[in-house]
Amino acid sequence: DGGITQSPKYLFRKEGQNVTLSCEQNLNHDAMYWYRQDPGQGLRLIYYSQIVNDFQKGDIAEGYSVSREKKESFPLTVTSAQKNPTAFYLCASSSGQDLTDTQYFGPGTRLTVL
Amino acid sequence: AQKVTQAQTEISVVEKEDVTLDCVYETRDTTYYLFWYKQPPSGELVFLIRRNSFDEQNEISGRYSWNFQKSTSSFNFTITASQVVDSAVYFCALGGYTGGFKTIFGAGTRLFVKA
């Protein structure tokens, strides 16, 4: 089955630790995205990548880093510089490099900082 | 600047009632795209519809229908004969080119359907 997988589903982190969230897609999509969702709020774009080995900052990139070494993978690292990392993180992909294409989402990772 | 407003934070209905979720957008683009997504309690966003700015025809898919009106910059979503399984957060989104290629999401409307 084609789709987007994110792991882990729940993640707990101590303050001061970096943590990496996994996102894999087997849809052969060019573009991939990371969003953050806080309770009662919409989605905010963290980073996006339109092609392998290239990525761009979104609206709230500070304290986060990404890599795109393979077409199917777009991991997100939440660094200790992110002041308020507790949130729900959603990964998405779209078929073309046009960022207005339909995005398809993974199941999300809920990160809690203890 | 582009903006999506979903003024209804929460809506509560009784099963079998019809319900309309409002979406108002702002853009200076002539070509843009509008989307609706459903986010059930599991968390994953489920794509419902994509509509481009040149297609103002209303669309119906089963119990779901969408009303796109460029004159009022609205793209409203109606669920007919609501069911408990429709309980979710619904997001409207706008894809456009002002300020760079981007899709932005509204804050969402939480729908409760009571049995």
Give a description of the structure.
The complex is a heterodimer of chains A (114) and B (115). Chain A is built from no helices and eleven strands. Chain A has strands spanning 4-7, 10-13, 19-25, 31-37, 43-51, 54-57, 64-66, 76-78, 87-94, 104-105, 109-113. In chain A, strands 2, 4, 5, 6, 9, 10 and 11 form a seven-stranded mixed sheet that branches. Chain A has a four-stranded antiparallel sheet with strand order 1-3-8-7, with no helix packed on it. In chain A, strand 4 and strand 5 form a beta hairpin. Chain A is globular and about 35 Å long. Chain B has strands spanning 3-5, 10-14, 19-21, 24-26, 33-39, 46-52, 59-61, 64-69, 74-79, 88-96, 102-105, 109-114. In chain B, strands 2, 5, 6, 10, 11 and 12 form a six-stranded mixed sheet that branches. Chain B has a four-stranded antiparallel sheet with strand order 3-9-8-7, with no helix packed on it. The A-B interface holds A 40-43, 45, 88, 90, 92, 98-108, 110 and B 4, 9, 32-33, 35, 37, 42-47, 50, 91, 95-97, 100-103, 105-108.
Which features would summarize this protein structure in a list?
heterodimer, A: mainly beta, seven-stranded mixed beta sheet, four-stranded antiparallel beta sheet, 11 strands, B: 115 residues, mainly beta, six-stranded mixed beta sheet, 12 strands, 0% helix
Please write the string of helix (H) and strand (E) elements of chain B. Answer: EEEEEEEEEEEE
Overall radius of gyration of chain B: 14 Å
Structural class of chain B: mainly beta
End-to-end CA span of chain B: 41 Å
